[in-house]
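User: Hi! I'm working on a homework problem where we have to compare a predicted structure to a textbook description. Could you give me the structure for the chain below?
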Amino acid sequence: MGLLRTQMVQEMVLQGYSQQSIKVYTLYVQKFAQFFNKKPTEISELELRQFFAYLYTNKSPFSIYLYYNALLFFYSFHNMNSIMKTIPRPKRPVVIPAVLSQNEIKIFLNTCSDLKYKAFFTLIYSSGLRLTEGLMLKVHDIDFDRKLVHVNLSKGLKERYSIIGENTINLLKEYIAIFKPTNYLFYNGNPHMIHKPMGLRSTQSKFQYYFSKTNINKKAHIHTLRHSFATHLLENNVNIFYIMQLLGHSSINTTLIYLHMQRLDLLNIASPIDTIGINFPQKNVPVQLDLQFFT
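Assistant: Happy to help. Predicted structure tokens:
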């Protein structure tokens, strides 16, 4: 699939797909080709239907969704999209990601003993940034006076501003005074790569290292900080349209997922069982047991 893969990557780059999307789509098309040990362009419509029947039996809904979109892109690019016409479009599964409570965020950030990474993770949570957005920030992107961060390489190539907390500003000033960044706000620690941003994988590894020391019984990654930012704003009664702008979402439907992630106890919603007047036993009234029932 060498030439076909190269052509697919080039087309996705031209159409503005992210590097992560390119990686996932090409991987799924490659797995599809390996399933039949053929080039994707040589696979028949019948074989394609057999493949999706296999997926629906053996794979998760989200994997099926990704396979469909990857193959739809591939065949559309090769003017073969008619081969997909008999495959029903799967619905995108609604996956509710993990969220840390505000106390868990506090525990995690207090666990970070490295000033650079503590400042980075604090900024990610404080402003609701994606990992790559945080890594690509330049020093001049931080407006301390207006308490704003300028995000100019966001997903979909959309610029936006987001907020910065007062505590984050103080931490960033301390970090800048010690590390003295001149280009990228969080630069690579290698003396030969000081003009490049911190590495993605090393930053992810640092997050997992510090998170593992918190004893918080949840699966989390750096993007969890962004999810937590949005959820906590919603719990603090911030308008969801403002949250949409801060996150850089193009559609309100993407932001609405956070309605499912906020703490239900903060909504003060009474269960209907409490309003229909059922006679329950009074508190502290001893229950009389029929001992004959147990003999």
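For your comparison, note the following. Residues 19-36 form the longest helix (18 residues). DSSP finds twelve helices and three strands in the chain. Good luck with the assignment!
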